[in-house]
Amino acid sequence: MSKITKPTDIVLILPPKRFKEHRYSLGVMYISGYLRDHGYDNTIIESKILGGKDYVYDRQKARREIIETAIRLQPKIIGFTASTIEINEVVWLNNQIREKINCYSIIGGPHVTASPAEVLGRGFEVAVIGEGEQTTLELIRELEKDIPELSSVKGIAWLDKSQNKTVINSSRELIDISELPLPAYDKVNMDYHTKIWDDVIRGIPIKSVMVMGSRGCPYSCTFCACNKVFGRRVRYRSLDNIKKELILLRDQYGVEGVWFADDTLTVNYDYVKKICGLMKELGMYWGAQSRVDLTNEGVVRLMRDSGCLQLDFGVESGSQRVLDEIINKRIKLADITKAFELCHKYGIRTEASFMIGLPGENKEEMVKTFELAQRIESDHYSFSIFMPLPGTKLYDDFFAGSLNLDDYNDITFHQSADKFNKSLVPSAELDVLFRQWRLKLFEGVKKRGLKHFLRIAVIWLKLGNKKERLDFILFKIKRAIKYLLNKFGFKFAIN
Q1: Do residues 244 and 267 both lie within one domain?
Q2: Do residues 271 and 149 both lie within one domain?
Q3: Number of helices and strands in the chain (H, E)
Q4: CA distances from 422 to 269, 323, 394 (A)
Q5: Number of folded domains in the chain?
Q6: Close Cβ partners of 312 (under 8 Å, ≥ 6 residues apart)
Q7: For residue 98, what is the domain's CATH number?
Q8: pLDDT tens digits for 358-413?
Q9: Is residue 181 in a domain?
Q10: Are 79 and 37 in contact (CB under 8 A)?
Q11: What's the CA angle centered on 76, arms 74 and 77, to 5 degrees?
């Protein structure tokens, strides 16, 4: 491969599914910024290129424009990221592009970190395993050589064509994340990502974005593989580094609030105190993920006083047996009740994640989950059916060797399937329970939303962007009217 000389020589591509999300892809933006900081400018294909701020999500259109844009740019290297539910679409997109241009294809993300052999030989030469910044940089430097030695690059898997086998190199050491350059905000559509919306800090309609303050998770939940990418040791950015980013977001992009993308913000109390002090100093609203067993009254009060609007909790089940024996959550039911009571007491909104259909779970335990979900009266829910994801212990224990790449086309967290269902409840019954319970939970969410209306109204009065706020209100009213009309049989669109 010839030398990389211009930004379009390296093109990083988001899966089409992410084009409808207001949350940007921090992982891709960090890699983009890191490459540029080391002399390799690059291009990110996302809504900035596919139509700018007026881009309206259409999956088929996004697919077409990704392919057409990549072909037009004529890159030497294309890089994709993909989760399990995105992997087949990404393989297809890459092959469509490769039919038209001669380029080198790299893929990273949680799926290939766990299962690289599934995609190598299907259009991808290399899979980046785990944390991607240093590995991608070293890989590109190697590819520029006349005779690349892929065996010398830590943290990759690659296809040895001479022996037709997948080679997995030695792991790469985890990096000091305080030394990372800021994500490449200028390469994505920040007008779109900073629109007033309510799905970044869920349910809070302000101009908000994601920020990463730490990487790593010390826990071992059997349904999760996050520490396969970022490790078990929690690594923290320096406070000055985080402050620099927050000031940029506030002053250059008009951001009013942030959602910290740390796996668990409250693992380290000193870190929590520093974040609270910083957010109070900058006058920005925020939300984060926490654990119910790491949420005490002092922490909740400190967060509330520093502008925290919402905490997200992975509760998962209302059965202590499921929590202990199936998912290794390491929390008690009493911890769950206490954490939500404290958040209600101090006016912090909550988001609670639950799942049913876990391997070995019976109907009585699923009922307990639904009853607990109702009882804690969360302000938002993520309620799903368990699906096996490569890299997790549950996948290894119950599904290893029985699923292939084609099976992942059928993964959805809102509908069961016999090949994924290892619970003690038949798939058809599981689907019925899920639909009924999810509907009841979100009916409660709508009613409880009224109690936060006054607080949101006060926040809105303090902030600027009045016209955009009015536009958002009108959008929500139109959508509510459309929903009601369609519900009663009037099938027509309201733009």
Answers
A1: yes
A2: no
A3: 17, 16
A4: 38, 16, 10
A5: 3
A6: 202, 287, 288, 289, 290, 350, 351, 352, 353
A7: 3.40.50.280
A8: 999 999 999 999 999 999 999 999 999 999 999 999 999 999 999 999 999 999 99
A9: no
A10: no
A11: 115
Q: How far apart are alpha carbons 17 and 244 in whole angstroms?
A: 31
What is the DSSP secondary-structure string of 18-74? GGG-SS--HHHHHHHHHHHHTT---EEESTTTTTGGG----HHHHHHHHHHHHHHH-
In-domain check, residue 225: yes
Flag the least confident range among 90-104, 347-361, 441-455: 441-455
Q: Does the residue 1 lie in any domain?
A: no
* Tokens describing residue 294: 């790491």
Least confident interval from 62-66, 172-176, 345-349, 475-479: 475-479
Cα Rg of the chain (Å, integer): 23
- Chain position carrying tokens 């199936």: 326
Give yes or no: residues 413 and 329 share one domain: yes
- Tens-place pLDDT, residues 138-155: 999 999 999 999 999 999
Quick check: is 182 in a domain?
no
Longest dimension (CA), the chain: 67
| Shared-domain flag, residues 145 and 242 | no
Average pLDDT taken over every residue of the chain: 92
Higher pLDDT, 483 or 246: 246
